[in-house]
Amino acid sequence: AEYPKGSVVWTRDTTLTESVEIAKGASLYIEPGVTVTCKSEVQVPVEIVVLGNLYCMGTAEKPVVFTSDTKKPADWGGIICGYNSQEVVLSHVDLAYAGATPTESSHSFQNKLYKTSVEDGLPAFFFCNTNGSFVMTGCFFHDNYNDQTYLSGGQAVIYDNILADSGNAANGGEGINIKAGCKMDVANNLLYNICTNGFKLSNAGNSESVPLSQFVAYNN
Q1: pLDDT for 79-129, tens place per residue?
Q2: H or E element: which one contains 110?
Q3: CB contact set of 48 (below 8 Å; sequence gap of 6+)
Q4: For the whole model, what pTM was predicted?
Q5: Contact of 159 with 185, CB cutoff 8 Å
Q6: Any bridge partners for residue 184, and if so which?
């Protein structure tokens, strides 16, 4: 494949011992069949913080896999996108064992993403740019310690995914958690063994000026 000049491309399996931050305006492409293994025995949980763009180009035969070395929920943080993240593609992504609680040294905390406190674990996937867009299709999210998705902005389609075995007894965990500022079609998804709610819909947003969400869901 050909990629825009300046793009970072992961073509082979990789192990992360520290967080990866995709800078504003930059793009990371992950090719089909690549497995990303996050180490769990680290001082600061591994996160993939997307301030730019992320394209996980998996296929049904060769998914992009995000996993951990010990395969336990909360081994690593998750994919956390910033307020200037323009585009994210999650095509046939197998993502598991996320949901770790950040520290004050975590990239998500330093960039003031998700929450400004560190008492809660991260969602497996977080998107917040009301002017950004993402697609999530053919994915399998499972065994994540908190929300599978937490969406507080953006235009998106979420379809043909399986979200299974999420959350924990202490804090719960949603399947698809949609706040204000979103315009989304959500269709043909299977949500199984979600700790709290399959869908959680809220008029809360990331600022008082965020518009109410437009949300169309069918065949879930």
Answers
A1: 999 999 999 999 999 999 999 999 999 999 999 998 877 878 999 999 999
A2: helix 107-110
A3: 19, 20, 22, 36, 54, 66, 77, 78, 79, 80
A4: 0.96
A5: yes
A6: 156, 215
For CA atoms 40, 107, 15, 151, the dihedral sign is positive
What is the tens place of the pLDDT at every residue in 15-42?
A: 999 999 999 999 999 999 999 999 999 9
Tokens for 9?
Answer: 């491309």
User: The tokens 């960039």 sit on which residue?
Assistant: 111
What DSSP state is assigned to residue 206?
S
* 125-164: burial string, b at 16+ Cβ within 10 Å, e else: bbbbbbebbbbbbbbbbbbbbbbbbbbbbbbbebbbbebb
In angstroms, what CA-CA distances link 52 with 49, 93, 158, 179? 9, 19, 20, 22
Amino acid at 109: F
Residue the block writes with tokens 């809360």? 204
Residues 6+ apart with CB under 8 A from 194: 148, 163, 164, 166, 167, 173, 174, 175
* Tokens representing residue 148 in the block: 């599978």
| Cβ contact 73:143 at 8 Å | yes
Taking the C-alpha atoms of residue 63 and residue 3, their distance in angstroms, rounded to an integer, is 19
SS3 content of the chain, % helix, strand, coil (to 5): 0, 40, 55
| Phi, psi of 192, deg, nearest 5 | -135, 135
49-76 pLDDT tens trace: 999 999 999 999 999 999 999 999 999 9
